[in-house]
Amino acid sequence: MNNLFDLTGKVAVVTGGNRGLGKEMALGLASAGADVAVVARNVTEEVLEEIRNQGVKAIGINYDIRNVDGYGSLVDQVIDQMGKIDILVNNAGVQKRHPAAEFPKEDWDFVMDINANAVFYLCQTVGKHMLERGKGKIINIASLLSFQGGLTVPAYAASKGAVMQFTKSLANEWAGKGVNVNCIAPGYMATEMNTALIEDPTRSRQILERIPAQRWGNGRDMQGAAIFLASDASDYIHGYTLAIDGGWLGR
Amino acid sequence: MTFQLDYFSLKGKTALVTGARTGIGQAISIGLAAAGAHVLLLGHRDNLQETQTKIEEIGGTYDTILIDLSKVDTIREKLKPIIEKHEIDILVNNAGVIYREPAVDFNEQEWMRVIDVNVNSIFVLSQEIGRGMVERGSGKIINIASLLSFQGGIFVPAYTASKHAVVGLTKALANEWAGKGVQVNAIAPGYIETNNTEAIRNDEQRNKSILERIPAGRWGEADDLAGAAVFLSSKASEYVNGHVLVVDGGWLGR
C-alpha cells in the first residue's frame, strides 16, 4: 500500500527549498524517494547533503525567482541534469507588513511578483513540459490568507488568494491531460516568516487560542501533505486546496 | 526527525468502516487493510462477502459487524460489545443512502431515513467510538461528505441537507477533540461510479452534462478515494483537523 505514496524515480523541483517549509517539503519528498532540485537565491551545500542523506539525488540552482524571463532556461537546466520534472512545489514566498493606508507600492509589487506572478509563470513553464509528457503534479503553497484577510498584510492576502484561484484555472485546463494542480494551505507554522507573530505575546496567545489542535504547525506536518499530493494517491484531486491548519478554518 | 514513509502505514491499527459492502466503503476498507489496518466491516445484512474476499486476497484481516444504522436508537447497545472487544483507532463513517423525489412531493419517511442514516447514526458512532479515542488521546475519524456538502443538487433535498450536516458535525467535533489528539475530518467524493450514482449514469443526458463539467474528464472510481482515506487515517496527517478533503476530479473549481 505504501507504494501508493512512493515517489521513487520522480524528480521534484522545490522553490525556496533552502529553508523553512520549503526545505521541510524537499526533505519530505526525498524521504519518499524523489530526487530534488532546490531552487533558491542561495542554495547551501548543507541542505543538499541533508536531502542526499535520504538516498536520493539533489541539485541546487541559485536563482532569483523574480527573473521570470529566465524560467525557460531554468527548466532546461533541471531537465538537463535530472532528465525530467514530475513534481513542482511552488513554495517561495515573502511577507511585508504595513497598515493598508500606508502600504508602499514597491512592497505591494515585491509581494505580488514573488507570491503570485512568479508562481503562475513557473506553473506555465513547467506545466508545458508536464503536458508534453501527459503527467505531472504541481503543488502551490497557498495560505490561510487565501481564505481570510489577515491583519496589515493585504499584499500577502491578495497574492495567496490569487494562487488559490489560478490553481483552479490551471486544473480546469490541465486535469484532463494528466497534470494535477493543487494547493496546500499551511496554517500558523512555527517558521522564520512568523517570528514577529510568535514573539508578540498578545498575537501569539490569540492565535494559539484559536487553533483547535492547540499548537503551531511544523515542517513535518507539511511533509505528509506534500507527499500525498505529489503521489499517485491523489490522482483524482484537482484544483483543490488542502488546509494543514490544526483546524483553524473551522473554528 | 525527518519524515518517514511509514508514517502512512496503518500496521497495528484497527479501523471500523460503515457501509463496507460495496462502492466507496469497500474501496476504503481494502485500502486501509492494504496499509496494514485490521478492518471491522460494518454492514446491515450478512452480504459483505465480496469485500471480505478482496481483503483476504491482499492478505488483510477483518471482522464483520452487522448493525442497521437506520435504527439509530439501537446503535449504542449494539456497539457496546464491539467497543469492549476492539480498541478502534480509525472510524470511517461512510454508510449513506440517497432518495430522489422532487421537493414538493418528497416523502417524509424517506426524509427521516436519509437524515437518520447519513447524519444521526454518524453522531452516535462518533460519540461512542470517539469517547475512547479522547480518553486514549489518539484517534482518527473520517466522515464521508459529498459535493452536496457544498452544492444543492437536484431532487435530493434530504441527501443535501444531511451532507451539509456532516461537514458541520466534522468541524464541531474537530474543534472539541483536535487538542486531545483526535483528528476529525471528512472526504468529499465527486461523481464516483457507485450504486448511488447508477441512476444518473444511466440517464444519458445527465451523464453527459456531468462528464462535461469534470475537469479530469472521467467519473471517479471508488479506488480514487483510498489514498485520501489512508492519508487521513495515518500519522502523515496529524495537523489536519476539521477539514473536508475534496476528491472530485476538479468539479468544484469549475
Automatic annotation (TrEMBL), chain B:
A single GO molecular function term of this UniProt record: 2-dehydro-3-deoxy-D-gluconate 5-dehydrogenase activity
Keyword Transcription regulation on entry: no
Spans traversing the lipid bilayer: none
Keyword annotations of the record: Oxidoreductase
Keyword Oxidoreductase: yes
Top-rank lineage group of the source organism: Bacteria
EC number: 1.1.1.127
One GO term (biological process): bile acid metabolic process
Signal peptide: none
Top-level enzyme category: oxidoreductase
InterPro entries assigned to the protein according to its UniProt record, in alphabetical order: 2-deoxy-D-gluc_3_DH (IPR011286), NAD(P)-bd_dom_sf (IPR036291), Sc_DH/Rdtase_CS (IPR020904), SDR_fam (IPR002347)
Family per similarity comment: Belongs to the short-chain dehydrogenases/reductases (SDR) family.
Name this protein carries in UniProt: 2-dehydro-3-deoxy-D-gluconate 5-dehydrogenase KduD
Source species: Bacillus mesophilum
